[in-house]
Structures are given as C-alpha cells and as structure tokens.
Amino acid sequence: MIRVTVWGENVHEQKSEKVRKVYPEGMHTVIAAGLAEDPEIKVRTATLQQPEHGLSAEVLAGTDVLTWWGHCAHKQVEDAVVERIQERVLGGMGIILLHSAHFSKIFKRLMGTSCALKWREAGEKERLWVTNPGHAIARGLGECFVLPNTEMYGEPFGVPTPDDVVFISWFEGGEVFRSGCTWRRGAGKVFYFRPGHETYPIFFDQNVKLVLKNAVKWAAPEGAWTKPLEAPNVPIEQAPEKLVQKGEKLHAPGQKGFK
Q1: Rounded mean pLDDT of 106-125?
Q2: pTM higher than 0.90, yes or no?
Q3: Which DSSP string do the residues of 84-142 spell out, in sequence order?
C-alpha cells in the first residue's frame, strides 16, 4: 500500500466562485478521490489552513508520496515546513508538483533555479504528447491526449535539465512546454506535471487521473528510508585502513563541518 498525502493550498476554492463551480469541495478532494480509485493507494489530504499546513513531522513520516498544488499563497507556506519536506524527499519520499506549484517554495528549493515560464489564460486546447512511452508514468496512455480548455505554459522553463521528459505539450496558440519532467533528489523522486488550472475540470479527466496514479507508483520509495548526511567528521581511528596523522587539523575531534 502506497501512503499518499494530497496537499492543496485551498485558497481559490474559498475566494472564487469560478473555482467553486468546478471544485466545490476543493481541488485536493478531487485529486485524492482520483488516486483512491486505485486499491494500491491509501490517501489522506492536507491544506494550507491547518496547523503546520497539515504536514507535521508525524504526517510526513507516514507519507510515501506527497502531491502539491499551490498558486496564490506560495509565500504563506512556512519555511520550517519546506525544510521538513525537503529532508523527507532527500530521505526517499516521492513528491509530485502540479501546475502552478512550479513557483512553490518546495519546488524552487528542490530545483535551485527560477522555475519561471511563460503563461496565458485563454481556455485554449492542449495536446500532451507522450515523448517517453516506455516510462512508468506513461503506462496505459496512447501517443497523446487532449485537454479541450486549459491555461498555456510556454518555454523556456527555468528548471535544471530533467532526468526524463515524459510529456511535451502543444497549445492552440502555438507554444510548447515540457509538461511532464522527472528528477531525483537524494533518495527521493520528483515529478512535475503541468496540467491543473483551477478554473477548468482537469483533475476529473481520465487521462490526467491515470497519469497521477502512475506517477504515485513511480515516485514511491525504493528500499529503506535514509537520513541525509550531515557532513560527519570521521575520526582517524574509524577509518577503514590504519592511518597516521600527517598534518595540522582545523577541526576538533567530533566537530561537525562548517555550514
């Protein structure tokens, strides 16, 4: 059983009637319901408004894969929670970033770049081409699928070169975009998936739901959880081979490295 926490900003749904018409119970509930259709996936939800944004150390310890949707309240996410998520990803937790989460604190932290892109709200058609049909995230899909109305995201996309590009989107206005990208960070897997604008029923789409189910299974931890190294000082007596001190030392015995 893969334990998934679906995180939603849950702000537009409370403030915009346009969004409430599409997602009256919140986008996170629809994403969670789609994932829960798979008997191998156990889902819980968390939102920005909860204490610690619903992502306490205990919740993250019980999460194999975290999905993240955010847009207008990126700055309201506490840095301590971002640190906690990053450490968990480095230790093996998978994370799936959706649509406007490209500008979230956690995605920027994991990428180390601007994560900027072009965009336009015109309700135009998007055709997602499967560029890596052998990838686990593309399992069960045809060579492409179409979303009839969506927000355009266009290149250049300010991210590090992905390990894999699973989808490339073409938009009615002519732009293209790397819409499904993967990276590894430490022991954890990262997947960015572009579709998901809040004024369109994208998370009800059967192909989108299949992508997210596949992505959860791909991003689930492999092997035992690990704790990120803290630059430990290895004493001479603990070296695998016998050593004799040959030079001056800057650090005291047991002292951690400078950060």
Answers
A1: 98
A2: yes
A3: HHHHHHHTT-EEEEEGGGGGSHHHHHHH-S----EEEEEEEEEEEEES-TTSGGGTT--
